[in-house]
Amino acid sequence: MIIDLPEGKDPIGYVWGEMVPGIGIAASAFSLSVYEHSTLGLREFEAARLRIAQINGCVFCLDWRTERDGVKVEAEFADAVTEWKTTELFDDRTRLAAEYAERYATDHHNLDDEFWARMFAHYTQAEVVELSMSIGSWLAFGRLNHVLGLDTVCVLPGH
């Protein structure tokens, strides 16, 4: 961790809540809302989230598995996300979520009409906006935690 931490302070609580409370508390609320209010299916949600975690290299995000109603994706899902182009474990929505996450993070200037036609064949406009906001949250905050060295001590608020 590159931030000096006062003795006895929780790293995430200190950096996100105390150091910059006007920004960190709002960022934390946004980060948590992606999990609390998502209408996306668990598989497409996790495909996009894990692809961003893989790109960011966030240790916590790579280990985390979102749970909904006691259900998590299967153990081999993370490996399938790495191989999103060829895996047989994904349906079209899940594959597109992983592709969108990757392109959003690494090639957003080249999201062309062909890509959007495929997206809108499987996702509503509201779902694309939700997925975009979720990916943006994971990209920004996973990368922030990794850059500051917080990703080895990170926990989601409320978990």
From TrEMBL:
Q: Which domain of life is it from?
A: Bacteria
**InterPro entries, per database record:** AhpD-like (IPR029032)
SUPFAM superfamilies, A to Z: AhpD-like
- What is this protein called in UniProt? Carboxymuconolactone decarboxylase family protein
- Organism of this sequence: Nocardia aurea
